[in-house]
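Q: Hi! First time doing this. I have a protein sequence and I read that you can turn it into a structure. Is that right? Here it is:
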Amino acid sequence: MTPPPARRRRTDPDRTPARSLLRRGAVRRSQMITTYGVGSLIAVDHESFVVSGLDGADTHWSEDESPRIHERRLARLLDVQYFRLPPASDETSKDGVRVRRFPVMHFCPECDELRRHRDFNPPPGRSVCGTCEVDLVPSRFVIACEGGHLDEFPYWHWVHRAAGTGSPTAGQCGGTLSLRTSGRSSSLRSVVVSCSCGVPEVSMEGSFRRNALKDLGLRCRGTRPWLGTSVPAEPCGHAPRTLQRGSSAVWQPVLKSALSIPPWSDGRADPLAEYWEELRKLNGRHEVEMCLKFLFKGESPVPVDEVMALLEAEREEDPEGEETPTFDHRYRALRHKEYERLRAGNDERARSRDEQFVCETPLGDPAELHPLGITGPMLVKKLREVRALKAFTRLGDADASTEGREAALSTSELAWLPAMEVRGEGVFLRLDEDRLQEWERSTRVAARAERLRTAHERLMRQRATDPASVPPSPAGPRMVLLHTLAHVLVNEWSLDAGYPAGALRERLYADDTMAGILLYTATSDSAGSLGGLVAQGEPERLALTIRAAVRRAEWCSADPLCVESDASGIGGTNLAACHACVMLPETSCEHNNMLLDRALLVGTPEDPRIGYFADVLS
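A: Yes, that's right. Below is the predicted 3D structure, encoded as structure tokens:
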């Protein structure tokens, strides 16, 4: 009998730089922010990896392949100096994004052995069984906790639990694990794990229960494989949960974005990006002038007068009312400034060719929109949006309630964050404030919005590390109305104007002093800036679109169940809203398809007057 080949050892084969990941075109640059960012799992061919963090000698992004981009308002909000684009996924890329093999547990479909990848002794650069020479299959199951940690599924504990050895010392029996599929069904009951030590084999059925691992006495170990094996584990008191390796719950990005608006939108201030904090501390024009001469060894790339104007504009955005403003407060201040600029406009004829924000009044008569309760339409002919990856979460949507559970992108504070920029066009419109206030005063309208607010705050408290620190829900009558109106307009334009719904994006401006929507192209490809969306913003055409969208929203193929629903969506955070009527691709929605209710647009059969557009349907 021929003995099996000797097992070959390598130095830490589980740490895989995989420099060619993006060079092979597996991931687009924009996906490194929204889908396959730091800490996410990515399948390449038959292998699985976790995208590495931003710092460390073997994980840094090459300056040549990830150029800097600047957006001062967003950088200030996120406390960084600048942003960097992810490395490009083309043939010119020499380095790319680094990844590490995860999960490490693999099984061989030929011999059914389940063990760490390196224990199969695969040849260098390949993921095959050293004995059977067939491709190894990464574990389908991983575990994660609400603190953002990620770990291997504890197969040893799971298979030995029936023998009463489910303690942390389980797996010291010296046996070899095996995994096979019985083939009787596609359920977890058919996935069977066994050990050569003789304990009874067990199926994976029940492993996805919320308390399945907690019942085994297992707690989260606080591991962060995306940061490397040398990074110590974090203390963590959460109970881990089993997930499919490809589940969307494994990784959810925390994205923050800002529009480039004057005076920052012409790029002239970019050379000073690293020095703004120092310049803000100076007193008077003379000190600023001396500082610029020292920094640039002579003549500054930006005239002193312009620097003073920029500093004054930045101070105007400082949020008022709090000595130490919270992140949410500062983010609202950023939105307020955008809202003011969208209302005021920015005529292209008065600006330079480098201007990245052009917003003009339409040529048609805005009076066409007054019967609909719509006012102030603006054509945003040029815009630039920067979206930055601030952090990520696991086991939940990355909304405002997750700040205490956000997982870091690096082990230390960096001067930059990964980001992408979108250049496109859009349409901005506002609701008539007098009509809106009259509608909001309705007790029935307020009651429906209150149900959503209560459900949303309950969901945020459940997900928060400190329930007492949860901010108030933004759900109010005008916010829900604006959000639902944005969705029905995107759906209407996807049918009437030829835009795919995933190519459009909403940006809501809703609080006591704002009531507006910006709908704009969310991609930078051929659907980005051809003028087609701006053409939809002319008052006559926009009025027809709104009427058609509202009439379409009056009926859903899931009615009467949809319109009569007392609660729908995640945690009951929607009312009359489903995928057959108003929901959008999640990349197009700011709130993960939550806080929607088309009844506030069109009313209900029992009470049609609660709809803001009830007169349109009469």
